[in-house]
Amino acid sequence: MTRILFASVGRHWRLLGIGLVAILLANGLELLSPFYLGQAVDAITRGQEGRIPLLALAVVVFATAAALGQLVRRLCFSGLGYRVETELRTRLFAHLLKLDQGFFQQIRTGDIMARATNDMSAVQALIAIGISNLGNALVIFLAVVTLMLLIDWQLTVLSVCLFVIPHGVLFVIGPHTRRRFRLIQEQFAAVTAKAQENLSGIRVVKAYVQEESEKRAFRALNQDYMDKSLAFARIYNALWPVFAITDGAASVVLLYLGGIHVVQGRITLGQFVQFMTYLVIMSGPVLGIGWVVTYLYQGAASLRRIEEILDRRPAIVSPTAPRQPDQVRGEIRFEDVSFSYDGSPVLERFSLLIPAGSTVGIVGSVGSGKTTLVKLLLRLHDPKGGRILFDGVDVRDLPLEWLRSQIRCVLQEPFLFSDTLARNINLGAENPDPLQMEWAAELSQLSADLDQFPDGLETVIGERGITLSGGQKQRTTIARAVLSRPAVLVLDDAFSSVDTSTEEAILTGLKAAKGIQTRLVIAHRVSTIKDAGLIVVLEAGRAVEQGTHGQLLARRGVYARMYGHQQLEEDLLRWRNRDGGSQ
Ligand SMILES: Nc1ncnc2c1ncn2[C@@H]1O[C@H](COP(=O)(O)OP(=O)(O)O)[C@@H](O)[C@H]1O
Ligand SMILES: [Mg+2]
């Protein structure tokens, strides 16, 4: 827990140093005033009024200087807190980007959001309130006890026993357990996750009239969060009346014994006043330790939650000594590739050679493992058995970024950012070439739609492309994939929302596209891949048939049946439409 915090705080050692010096100075100055106050009281009892103005001035000057010192302390520690929070959040974000798919499958986005916001604030408070006040309380406690011992050791021991120990013990073992704070933070994460999921799926929520039930579910989570927080607050606040009673009783005892010491002449009245003032000065920070401990525990619980992510090593990384071919041909070979997500096999000893310069089609029913092949090729996951070779080199030996820039995929679910169309297409490119952009928009048949948008390619689209139609989203992601003319282009069910004539136009354009060597077209619609040089039929993670359209039809196997069914469906559809039209 402390490692990350120390490292981050250590980077701002100057600020920390000034803060610590401020603690020492402020308390030193503050503790000088009771001394002069005591002197003033003794001056009064001895009838030396002449000394009083100077002593009073000293009290005021030192108290003011101490207050300034405390101001510096607060500024330093809150500055430190915000800096550490900011750095930690940036680091968390950078780390999240490095993590693999598998991680994001296990954790909800809302939970991550809670860690990046709520937990970060708790870490900030841990430093700005927790550590700052704890340091202050420790210094003042040690200094005051030393000074009090110099005046009257018996009274000192009594004060520590009566005031300090009860507060310390009750607060530290009382309501503050890290577990309790962890539960509260986790509940908050659940609330955030619920809100996040509903807001991003708002269309479904509305379409299925789920507003009421989602509202109820959210209210239940939120209520639970309140209950957990209140349970803590109740115990915490119940301690205060207890202290009021013990502190009151302690004061009476102390006044009585102190009075006796004064009467006996063991200390002067001025010294007794000085003693009691020390106690008052100390009581604020030291007795407030329980309040400070709350922030320490809360911060520690939050830090642990942040650390859980930071400690997570990405399962898929670039090799330390990568091999990088000088020339890219664009050949892909799957060799006995097996894969399962959580136990149940998705691919079983799948082998396929995709020669450089070819167009290969993969067809198979939903859930047969087509998308999984793409994920393995891109190294979003690594195979459990077998290997995938790119131009003869195992993809795990290639630099990860390089591999992904050679193979561009149009993923089944298009994802667009809330930015301009142009920036969505040239994702990551610093200086996009306008001619290339135009070419990519033309090839993906997006150009035809551009006049529908007020600012053409410069139109800002809604979050996740909410302002575009499904087909427009798909064609935007096709433009994105072809823009850099990658050696290998993979289209994973990329035409599901595109009509067949547009699909044909795009496929024809792709064949002629310079730079793009190899095309892998995945579809569940046979018509999409029927012109491919080689067609592979995937069934339950196995390649069951291979060949050209003609060869596969002649085999009268799975492919031929699939084709027959789909033809029949299309014919029926056409028929029905014509029928509907004539009526
Ligand atoms: N992230 C995942 N976690 C667990 N199982 C998954 C995941 N993605 C896909 N699957 C399962 O793996 C099988 C193959 O999925 P997929 O490759 O997406 O099929 P296809 O693209 O052919 O429709 C399916 O049975 C699916 O339920
Ligand atoms: Mg798929």
Which keywords apply here?
single chain; 583 residues; alpha/beta; ABC transporter transmembrane region fold; Rossmann fold; 2 domains; 6-stranded mixed β-sheet; 4-stranded antiparallel β-sheet; 22 helices; binds adenosine-5'-diphosphate; binds magnesium ion
Could you explain how this protein is built, in words?
- The protein has 583 residues and is of the alpha/beta class.
- It folds into 2 domains: 2-310, ABC transporter type 1, transmembrane domain (ABC transporter transmembrane region fold); 344-557, 3-Layer(aba) Sandwich (Rossmann fold).
- It is 65% helix and 10% strand.
- The strands form 2 sheets. It has a 6-stranded mixed sheet with strand order 6-7-8-3-9-10, with helices on both faces. Strands 2-1-4-5 form a 4-stranded antiparallel sheet, with helices on one face.
- Helix 2 (13-45) runs antiparallel to helix 3 (52-98), helix 7 runs antiparallel to helix 10 and helix 7 packs across helix 12 (289-310).
- The longest helix has 53 residues, at 211-263.
- The protein is elongated.
- It starts with a helix and ends with a helix.
- The mean pLDDT is 89.
- Bound molecules: adenosine-5'-diphosphate (ADP) and magnesium ion (MG).
- Magnesium ion (MG) binds next to helix 13.
